Input
Amino acid sequence: MSTVLYQYKQAWAGLKKTPGFILSVVISMGLTLGALLCVLTLANVLLNDPLPYPEQESLYKIDQSLINDSGEEWAKAYNYPGMMHLYKKQEAFSEIGLLYYDYNIVSSLATQPNVNTTFVTPGWADLFQGELVMGRHFSDSEEVNTHNPVAILSYQMWQQEFQGAEDVLSKSLIINDVSFRIVGVLAQSFVEPEIYNVGYKTQVWLPWDFNPTPERAFQAWNRVQEPMLVVGKLKPGLVASQVEQSLTTMMDDTWQQAVVGDEYFNGWRIDMSVQSLKSTILGDTERTILLLIAGVVGLLLIAIANISNLFMARTVQKQRDLAICASVGAKKRHLFNMLFAESSLLLSMALLLALLVAHTGFDIMQSHLSDVLPRVNELSINGFTLVSAVILTLLCALGFTALSNNMLNYRALNLVLRSSGKGTSFQVAKSIRQLLIVSQVAIASCLVFANFNLIEQAYSVISAPYGFTMENRVYVSVMTTGTKADSEEKSVVMSQFAQQLEQLPQVRGVSRSVSPLRNMGSRAITMEASKQKITPELKYIDDKYLSMVEQPLLYGNTFSREDILDNTPVVLVNASFAKRVSTDLQQVVGQTLSFGDGTIYTVIGVVADTIMPGTTEPKVQLFKHTSIRGGSFLIELAPDYELSREQAAQILRGISSQYSLFEMKPLMQTRMRMLFSQFTMAITSASLALVTFLLASIGLYGILSYTTQLRRFELGTRMALGAKRFAIVGLVIGENTMTVVLGFIASVIILFSLYIGFSADLNAYIGDQLILISVITLSLITWICLFACYWPVRAYINRPVINTLRE
Output
């Protein structure tokens, strides 16, 4: 033990004399190893760690798909009566829970916050068994059709809106004119399963009976609702594939009987599927994780190559100290232990920095990526992180020690001492130097190419033309907070609100329309003449909408004010819809269609296609005119002006206290949220490309600088014999050209092999500008190599030759 401590003391004494070497190793390894630990911990949580729920391996999400007569999936969602039939009749799950995701205004609180609300059946509590700070879960007294108005709060809701009051169970919430008595508060440690949207956090849980499904939908077998989900605990001994078959038979038979006589659904069917809860939460995140791991491992390899060069130079520098040890009887294993003490000491310091970097990375992901990556709130420095850190550190320390030890010629060390080090200095083998250059170029080329490709893909989505204008447009929605008003009163209030908004100096116009960025769901329609079935996305707009968002009208007319006031059965369609009906889009104007409710609608116009942020293809859309009672408003502001939420809310309160602002967001803000994944990909890829570029530059410079230093006498001799500066630079570049070319060839082989092996997964990440990206990558890496060749030589060609020869 004393010998080990002595070796580490000696190692530290030697390292203190080279602070630059310490900083280079610790910072390079600490940053890259920390990034790798961060990504590996995330991968472990997502791919290996069990979900924090009892019997999580038995938990499944149960999906229903509506398949049309062409065998295509029309919708993956439930109709309300079908869901209730499944809830009551299924026998494959010992526990089953229904969930309806929504957001509502809590009118009883002074701030009237808009909160995420989830309506659930009591089975939800049995499935996830979240710990409570106080109170109870929903029980049989909140079962379906009991209509018991109670509520459970999240820990954050309790703290933010009730300041952690101990008497919160004596309070109530008023939502949608119903007073809900608070019966429980979930613990801060409860992890809500992200099965609806990644990052969605419920603030208030309410009983299923109070979900906002209208009564007309209770028997609407032909209409699906996307916010409704079903989860269950599979009974022991049952197999998921068998359960899918039995559920499909049960649900399809019931649905077929319910829609018999509806010609639209002739040839359609219901398919049921079950997916493990863990797979549901993970989604397609596995691809992202693998890409992150590949990128960070590449950076680590470049850093290891750089540090290997530093250790080789350090070994050359220490040859006299090693010779003294050999002369007094130190064996090879003793020298190995001395070198290991130094490398392990450095890597231990790097390990501390790596853990700090990993912890910081967890904080960043939890703050900024919770809407993109699931389960990030479960990240922390855990046993897996520490074990991985120790193993990686030990492997790197042993690798650097072995590299330095292999450079030693034990028999020649005595000669170093006898000759005072003159003429006997050992060097790093040329083959090793060339291997380092090839590996640096190959890894850097692969990483830069991959990251530029991801940047190009993200940019193409971000910069895509949308077909409508979002700048200076704000979407506002209004809902009742008190006793529900009758239709006539609501029409008056909404009209007055629109008129007063238009009178504001910063407002250019107001349209009674939904946001162009909002999905209002799809509806099944039938063209009357051809009986063709189409399922377009439905949007509600008024007569001002097209001009406000600058969406072109291709043929026909838009809605008139009279169409809205008289509720005339007319519609608009977009070009994608019209192409489904006729190759001549103009011929679609005047055709009629039906929603299956007995009313015949006439197509009066065809508008240009639009593309939603984050997508690349237009949707098939149909536009109906909005109701005069509608609470949706699209506001156009003058450039450089704003409309505050407080100002709009004050106008509304001045008209009626029964209404409140439900939502108010600039369209550009919504666009940024919809493009968050693309922006994240672009920023992350750009950062990785920049770090790769810098690490490769440092590494290649270090290797070629060492090579140039070994050849300084040769270069000085050539200059003394008349060689020009350009000739010397050209000589160095020429001698390294083949090595760099081999690095490029290796990168092509690596990339091609990855594509062959993982083409199905990688096709989604390959853009249209491969040639341009290849040229940019080749140019950047070539520039790095030229710089690394020139800069070390510069020190010798820009000074008198005699100074070079004297060294």
The longest strand covers residues 93-105. The mean pLDDT is 87.
